[in-house]
Structures are given as structure tokens and as C-alpha cells.
């Protein structure tokens, strides 16, 4: 289980970022792909989590993994602690890549970022995604049931990470590894925990909600709450596994679902207006 430590990797894995764009990583970049899928990580996660997705979905889908500041080869940069500043910077970075039908996928914290980014694109007069795919995260208008940890004492934060079962014990038991990991993790938790929902016109794009049947962090009712976020259709799909189902038990099933669904966005997207 290395999901919450994924952002510690240096990123030297053959990744090819978009020119002059540290935010966007493309392992199997295809300018001919009819659809582009942007993928956002969970707390502590990095772009490397989506390398297998890029290779599996190419050439029909151009996968762009978002690399947030403070991790992988951006580890020297200060991570964002507020969602509004993060989304503004991200919108600037991805605007040149919105030249074709696109969708956004986000898991856990990434789902919240993807939702707010979709609103920001609309507010800037740009197209919403052809589809918003959110995973392992309660609907944004619902209150959190989790403890506030971004400003908690280090022992409490480490104990919380152990409970999440997404960080190797070797990392949590290493003072050196924790010194590298915790600033990024605290910032990511701050992004989620300081978020304040505000009522707006729902998104027009359809929303797909994905979840693990054994996820202890998100209930089916919290996933169903995403129906209120869109004026379009909202479908909920459950997979075997816990909070990190998409990188574990259900990895192949999730990729198969995306491979079947995403190429169909092109004709739908082309008929819509910003």
C-alpha cells in the first residue's frame, strides 16, 4: 500500500510533461486521440499513479496526469494549502490542452479539485468537461465525518495515516521519510479541510460517481449526493475493494469501464456549447 506516499517519488519514470508545463504529465501523448482525460491524485498522491492508465487507454484517450506542486519532481515547490489558489493555477496550466473533448477524473481529494475546476472553467467562459468522473469522495456540499488533521500534532497525524492504511509502515516509521512526506500531506489535507462549499448553478456535464464497496471513508449515501452537483445525468458505479479500490482489486475493471465510455464523448461534446 503505497498510495499516500506516491508523491515522494522523484518522477524519473519516463514521464513526458507537456512543454513548459510542470502540471501536466503525458506518458503516451497522442495528438490524434479524440478525447483527453485529465487525472487528479488523492491526498499525498502523484501523477505516477496514472502511468498505467495512460498506457492502457492510448491511443483512443490521451491521459494527462496532473502533478501538483510539492511532490515528485516538483518537490521543491511549495504545495498549495487552499483549494481556490490551487484551482486558479491549475486552470491556467490546462487551458491550452482544452482543444478537444475532455473529461476530468479525480479520486478522493482529486474529486473535489475536479469539481471546483469544472466550475472555474465555466466561469472563465471555457467548456465544462464532457464528463466529470469522481471517485471515493462525498459530494462537495456534505460535511466531513473525518477528523481535522492538517494542523494536528505530528503523532496524531501519523496515527491517522496508519488508520487510512494507504502509507507503508516503513515510511511512517522513518523520521527522514516523514520529514519529506508530512509537509505535502498536511497541505493536501488543508486543501480539503478548509474548503467551504457555496451554492452555484449545478454543472451541466454528466457526472459519473465511482466507489469501493468496502470504503470506510465514504458511504453510498455520500456518493449519491453527487446527483445534486449536476443538471445532467449522474450514474453511480460500485467496485470491489476499499478506499483505494481503483489502484488495487478493481484496477482492471475501472480501466475497462473508462476504455468503453470515454471515446464516446467526442460526438456528445462537439454538439455542446460553453
TrEMBL record:
The organism of origin for this protein: Streptomyces finlayi
GO biological process: lipid biosynthetic process
Domain Thioesterase, chain residue ranges per copy: 36-259
InterPro entries tied to this protein: AB_hydrolase_fold, TEII, Thioesterase
Similarity comment: family membership: Belongs to the thioesterase family.
Source superkingdom: Bacteria
UniProt-listed Pfam families: Thioesterase
Organismal lineage: Bacteria, Bacillati, Actinomycetota, Actinomycetes, Kitasatosporales
Matching PANTHER family: S-ACYL FATTY ACID SYNTHASE THIOESTERASE, MEDIUM CHAIN (PTHR11487:SF0), THIOESTERASE (PTHR11487)
Name listed for the protein in its UniProt record: Thioesterase
